[in-house]
Design a protein that fits this description.
The chain is mostly helical and 282 residues long. The protein has helices at residues 4-32, 35-59, 66-81, 85-104, 112-138, 143-168, 182-202, 210-238, 253-273.
Length: 282
């Protein structure tokens, strides 16, 4: 069991993480106002996350075919910028797959299959999933408000789970991430669902009914937590605590934004399911 000093240190770390998380959310929200600054932010985050993911793969002894991976991630995001991904995604994915297999033949033969598979997965995990934020932001009129909404919902998922878990958490959620609790997870779901419904009522710019906002909050929070756990599994597999040390109190960029990868995809998909966005970006 933790002593008094251990509990105090843990709570201090949680407070620090919450404060840093709020600061990052404010900075991110300020960049949403202009579509191009937001798109550049997504690109920068994507390249940093890929760098950290490659470091995890190196620890496992199977680094990515990095030139192929970075080219794939950047291409995904840039094609989404110019509304061309729906036309060229098949070609891009085929090119990434073929290039991974081809270039991999010039490296060590041991681990060849793993390197190529990791490379393709990395491009999809980071490049593909980040494009959903580009798509959301590019929707005329409501896109900017939906982007504000999804960023806030995901940020509140992280903050809510941490805050509730540190206060009343008693039961471990999963062995993958021992500090996460069932109470924190459920608390985050309730908070974010309520905030989603309230945002729909208070901000007519979202053009959502309260129940649509509630569903968006629920699905986004579930996906955000799943994204966090998936990244925790990657770190546990590599035997490391953090993917980097760029962000004070949060570790690496991938540590901080892992929940956004799944959360943005879920928000985008839910917009279609609830019937407020029926036509894909062109």
């Amino acid at each position: 069991m933790l002593g008094v000093s251990g509990v105090s240190e843990s709570r201090l770390l949680s407070v620090r993480r919450i404060v840093v998380g709020l600061i990052l959310a404010v900075v991110g929200l300020s960049l949403v106002a202009n579509r191009w600054t937001f798109d550049v932010l997504v690109l920068v985050l994507g390249t940093l996350m890929l760098w950290e993911l490659n470091a995890l793969c190196e620890i496992k002894g199977q680094p990515l075919e990095y030139p192929v991976a970075i080219g794939g991630v950047v291409s995904y995001i840039v094609l989404a910028w110019f509304d061309l991904l729906h036309k060229w995604e098949g070609v891009l994915l085929a090119a990434v797959t073929i290039a991974s297999f081809w270039i991999g033949m010039y490296g060590d033969q041991k681990g060849y299959f793993a390197r190529t598979a990791y490379t393709v997965l990395a491009v999809l995990y980071i490049g593909k999933l980040l494009t959903y934020f580009i798509f959301i932001r590019s929707v005329p009129q409501t896109g900017i408000w939906w982007t504000y909404d999804v960023v806030v919902l995901i940020a509140l998922t992280d903050i809510g789970a941490m805050a509730v878990g540190s206060l009343i958490g008693r039961h471990q959620l999963t062995k993958i991430s021992p500090k996460k609790t069932i109470e924190g997870s459920v608390g985050a779901l309730l908070i974010v669902s309520a905030v989603g419904a309230a945002a729909a009522l208070w901000f007519p710019q979202l053009q959502l009914q309260w129940w649509q906002g509630l569903i968006l909050g629920l699905t986004t929070s579930i996906a955000a937590q799943a994204g966090d756990l998936a990244e925790s599994a990657l770190k546990r597999d590599a035997g490391v605590k953090d993917t980097g040390q760029i962000i004070q109190g949060h570790g690496g960029v991938l540590d901080r934004f892992d929940s956004y990868l799944f959360g943005g995809m879920a928000y985008f998909g839910t917009l279609h399911i609830i019937g407020v966005m029926t036509v894909p970006p062109q």
